[in-house]
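Can you give me the bound-state structure? Components:
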Amino acid sequence: MPTTGLYSQLHTDEDYKLLVLNSELLAALEAGSKLEFKASSPEDSVVLCSKNKTWLLRQKNHSNTALVMREFIPEDVSDSGIRLPPGVEEPSMYHLAYTKQSKELEARLTKGDIDISMLPIYTGDYQDFKETLQRSNAVRWTLKALQKYSPCSDEEFARKWPIVGGCVVDDVACILSQDFISRVLHILLMSCMAESLDFEALDMSQVFAAVNKDMGEGEEFNPFTLDVVRTVVGKFSKVTDEGKYAIQRKAVSQWYGVEALKKYASRVMISQEEFMIKWKSSFPPYFTCDLDFAALRGCFYRPLGRSIQYFSKQTLPDDPKERFAYLFKLQSSWELEEMIPYIEQLNTKGVKIDNFVMKYARRKRQGKRTLVSAR
Amino acid sequence: MPIVEVSVSKLKSLFDIDGSVAVTTPLGNTLLEIQGELEFPTVPPVNDVDNKFSIYNNKNIVRFGLLQVEPGSKKATMLVGEKQRLLGSVVKLDSPLGLLKFDHSTGTVDLQDVIRYKIIFKDRPLPIM
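Here's the bound-state model for the whole set.
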């Protein structure tokens, strides 16, 4: 049986790490996709990104000694004078351990993220935007730099950027304000209808031209730049195979619904029937879409059981116990479906939501409905 | 916001798996795992009677054992020093391991190899008879 002489460096190299190549990572490598380690800041978790996927990295420690060795020829093999046990052949090859590993990096598929918290907000007032930028010491990112440093793969970034309302003004990456998005969307829908553009296959340049048709060439500042129009179209549409944009009426309807809730049901509650009329009347004339009240779950509660009032989940406490207590203070009994949007992010272990709720509240079946109340 | 691209330029051919069991990768790397710790001195001792310590590429190295892998089978034996014998096996990894080299001076990471098998010694050492 051939024998291999084993050697090790006294000081093994610590610049090496072992990464578990799961099937997705292996597939990405086989496809020749470039892989990048990224972190939003030196303190943040490190992610690994391919062209279209993002993995969160976790370091798994073990107590074994794992030696990575390579073949070599010792310089003084002739006079090493190895005393061999009986029956063992003289080594015919030699391996040198050059790195010792007590941990492995494991990659778990995650969703790419864009940190928009430090980006300036653009309300459509260019002068104000410029002055605010000059006054504040906020970091100004170009879109390219933001994409490069976001813990997010390139394809996920391109998809998410318009959805979060990301835009570029004066080469600075910024976020469009909710009011401005509403304004642009309204004008955009009306302009497209006036020009009889096909909502299922919009062409960006045609939409831009339609929006700007009535703006004139005067000296007055026009906030509807191509970047702004591109963001709003991107936010409310899907790209077709032909590279056109298909407006997602469901997303438009939901946006108008949330805006209507903020406008009409922010300070006082309103009956659901009355709200539906207000919601319907908020769309541009002749724009048709279905009103799905269920799409607004997570933006309202029912203080007295039936009528609704706007409520933003951003204001809820992060602690699960506190959050449930807060929700039951707002409303003593919730329909499970209406409660889910407020609590699903707490379910970090991915437990079935019915069971998750039972940890903090009482669950009761009433016909087809599931009601959740405090213990 | 740190960012590092993983270079895989050297590895294109490694993704073509030919199905054969090879403890040593085509790039010459072998992974050997021992349950427990293998401890070496940090500097060579003055009195190295067995000539275990030597120098390779200006680095101090130590001879710590002998390895035998039975051809065609998955059994491996490692002899550590003159008294201990470990019985182990060649196992296929559930997921291959990528060997990454971090170069801090240039800020680059190089995927240097893909390891699909390892030699593992799980049991307590036996005496050499």
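A couple of observations. Chain B has one domain: 6-39+48-127. The radius of gyration of chain B is 18 Å.
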